[in-house]
Amino acid sequence: MRKNLEIVWTTLKLAVQELTKNKLRTFLSLFGVTIGIFCIIGVLSTVNSLEKNIQDGIKSLGTNTIYIDKWDYQGGAEYPWWKYVNRPSPKLAEMKLIKEKINAKIAAVFSFTTQSFIQHDNDKLDGINYHGITDEFEKIQPVEIAYGRYLNQMDFDFGTPNIVIGYENAEMLFGKAEKAVGKEVGLRNKKAIIIGVIKKQGKSFIDGWQFDKSIVLSYKFMRQMLFNERWNNPKIIIAGPEGMSSDALKDELKGAMRSIRRLGPTEEDDFALNAISDFSKNTSQLFGSVNLGGWLIGLLSLIVGAFGIANIMFVTVKERTPIIGLKKAIGAKRGTILMEFLLESALICIIGGLIGIILVVVLAQLLSSAFNFPIFVSTQILGLAIFICIAIGMLAGIIPAMIASKMDPVVAIRSK
Hints:
Blueprint: H1 2-21, H2 23-59, E1 65-69, H3 81-84, H4 92-101, E2 107-120, E3 123-133, H5 137-140, E4 145-148, H6 153-158, E5 162-165, H7 167-174, E6 184-187, E7 190-198, E8 214-218, H8 219-223, E9 235-239, H9 246-260, E10 272-275, H10 276-319, H11 321-329, H12 334-371, H13 379-405, H14 409-414
Parallel strand pairs: 3-8, 5-7
Antiparallel strand pairs: 1-9, 1-10, 2-3, 2-9, 4-7, 5-8, 6-7
Helix pairs in contact: 1-12, 2-10, 2-12, 2-13, 4-9, 10-12, 10-13, 12-13
């Protein structure tokens, strides 16, 4: 064991000497591998970061959650909006009937959203999302409060003029978010008291609830400000109990809604069941295709780099032919010679890969700071990069190494 370690150590030192002696040749050998690893790790890290951000945004809509709406959220190039626009909007009474018909311990929320302004003294913010919700909302979509408190049961039962405000809105109106608690603000045709500030969420590629730029208030209070709630995106949100699959919940809801709306066997559904799990699956499939593209680009660069390393290793074997012959003459085994050149080839690839990884990490930090979008390089991706480098190095060096190991010592010593 000790002897093998000494051979490996000696081989590595020799490989480093050769790399430092032929700087231009080393640079050209490393360049292809560096670009290949940079492409693979760069694309995988960017795509994974983007997917994580989108998946987190989807999860913010609730887990094992289904949105009952007249609109189908899937969209598409041939989206039949004219078909959906004439459907009846979900109603609060339907939500209550759903809970009665489905015996499982589901959480149900009636919600609608509109945009308007919020004003304090002479400061006014436009385009603010108003989320009017019923009391089980926090069971489906937990709301973390930074300052103050969340809506309580009395607020929901009596429609008290209390609201919870998003962090960015609070900062823009009052300078510091904590100052918002207890302040009176104007909403459309009503006055309200801010009782809580929602914890800052940050940017997301999925709109979701976008609490930073929203206010949350009880359904009954918001209803007082609306001329017709059907024009304000009403929806029923259902979260299934633990252990109940999204597909099973969807089947239960479909039967319940058809019964509530008294649809005949031949009549089409006049509602849409939008499962959050479907969006998550579609997103994973989409990014799987993008990852495949990144792999193809990176592998093409790696193949070019591998040919470059193989070419350099052939030159190295030719230059060291007399030395190889001398080593074999004094007792070096074929395996020792083979390992020497394979280690050198792998070392070149590892160094090239490390340079590519460093470039990706530096670029990720710069882009994260510039665009306020976190790009992370996971340990799994780093491990994959090192494995690829070793594999490419072994493949690129296997033929030159085998040629070196099979040399006749007498012929090799006499060569010039």
